[in-house]
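Practice set, problem 2.
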Amino acid sequence: MKCYYAPSEDAIGVCKCCGRGLSHEFAVDLGKGLACKGRCEEDVKALIGLVERNIAASVRADEILRRSAGTSIWSSVFSVITGSFFVGFGIYNGVETFTTGMGAIFVIYGIASLLRSRRFSQLVKR
């Protein structure tokens, strides 16, 4: 590949911003990428910063997702236990309509939420 700015010279790399071939004379090494001297330096610095911020955010996002999966499982278990309490209370006291129905809704919601939480936690572990 030849240099975009000096077509008679061989390129040593490619600008991270515009993709042009650069010879030693027209390249600026910014540590994590080359840039066209005087033309693309600021843009390449911005790109490098963006990539570094995304890498840092990705690590935090994974941690947040793992914690969210755990919280979701515990809230599902809480719904099942609460619903079971209402069902038992309703049957024991003979208030089978409202209290038992509300408890059954809690149990059904908790089980559905638990199944969804387990699938979510398996996705997060991958």
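Problem 2, part (b): a different protein.
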Amino acid sequence: MAPDLVSTLGRTRKLLVLLAGLTALFVMPTLFNNRKVLADQELIVGCPGGFATVQAAVNAASPGGRIRVCAGTYSEQVTINKRLTITGDNGAVLKPSAMIVNTTNLFSGAPVAAVILVRDSDHVTIRSLTIDGATNGVAGCSPLLVGIFYRNASGDVRECAVTNMKLGLGLESCQSGLGIFAQSGGGVTSKVAVSDTSVHDYQKNGITGNEAGTDIEVGDNVVTGIGPTTGAAQNGVQIGFGATGAIRQNSIMNHIWSPCLSPSMCSDIATNILIFDANDVVVTQNTLGKSQTSVSIVGGNNCRVQGNTIFQTDVFDGVALQGDNNMVTSNHITNSYEAAVFVNGDNNKIQANKINETPVGVLKAAGSTGTTISGNSFVNTPTPVVDPPPPAGIGPRPFR
């Protein structure tokens, strides 16, 4: 073979090797990326080619995966124990019938039947689903009926609707029926955020965060009680028993326990917001109306009630403090039956509130020391500040 031809073929072979290397350099990442896309592809429920049930998709999903629930009604309870994001299309409804026990209350050990149970995991997001308990079939006060239960788990509930968490005829007085419930136990820390969600037609509480280790953020939601009822005394949002958190920019109203008609005849009280044996809770920029006490802090310390609009409080007070070192500041409180603010505790601050149309502006219990009352404005309020002994034996009933 001629030397020039050998040289030419050698160069050609080198060029082909170089091109093959460049091809591998560009093609292999593309193949890898394609595999990655397939691995991260969301699972579909209810649409052609998808899973028939939400639970089947949850079981099949890898941790960190995504599930899309197509429009339709799914008669099932769902348990989640891994990192997931579940998003519903418009019209996606979980509405189980004949609900069964699927977990227990971490404090009492009592049986719980939850539509969605999130347990022993973090980063679990539930978004754009309707949770409907209308056909739950629970036939007694037990098991406890819950819409969404974060049990030793963390995550987010966003843009959901939780409704009809209540029992049937004859069971209205049972302390059951929670819209959303976050609870911790055994030293576990749970952080749950509930936002842009509608919660209504529940029997006991709308949104609840209980026990030490629970940190619940409740923001930009609409929480609506069933109105006057002789059943369970309702609470719109409850943070209690060592939990902490914040309640911001919500609309919460319509909590009335019918037998409570005057301070002398009330064994229970319905509240829009109940802070019970919980410290460092922030309640700010909410709209709170039509209840027997709008904000009740019982045994809480270092809580802050600030910048809220509070109106039409029947029987009792716009804000009731029974604890120490709390602050009530810059609220607009209108049309409270007894007092705009009731204080029974030490070193509380009642400052810069605008109070209109209430018999007493600030009702301070005898024996409370170190409380500062300053900078408040009073209109249509015959007695701005008064200091009688507190009423005995009356208070809201928390869920536990």
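Answer key, part (b): Residues 3-40 form the longest helix (38 residues). The chain has two helices and 38 strands.
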